[in-house]
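Notebook entry, structure prediction.
Reason for the run: the old model in the group folder had no record of what sequence produced it. Starting over properly, with the input documented here first.
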Amino acid sequence: MSPISRSALCAVLLAASVLPAAANLPPLSDGAKAKAAESAAKAAWSAKVAAFHLCEVTNRVVENYHASMKKDGKDTAPQVEAVTNCANPGPFTPVAPLETAGAHSPPATAIAPPSTQATEAELKGGVKK
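New structure, fully documented this time:
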């Protein structure tokens, strides 16, 4: 058996053994989905920050190039121009997940504890039997 067909056979066997296991995975929980969404937002923000830094560095390189060419007495203005629209994305602000049921957000502030030592008869004004 040639080395190429042996590696192809190994790849097929590996895929055949992994695919059924991946098909039986349970769905993601809400917490895992929220974490994945936050990770995606952070990755997008990181890409914006990287583009901003690249833009700043490009501007500095162009400025240095113009300065060195001007010092040598050469005109380079029409050929190379600096990028002027570098937008700073600012600090990362995670998006707070929206409450779906509202079960843990009561409409009003509690003024008394939720339970007491009194019996039901005492609470209704009756006599304890």
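Summary: Residues 104 and 110 are 13 Å apart (CA to CA).
The old model has been moved to the deprecated folder.
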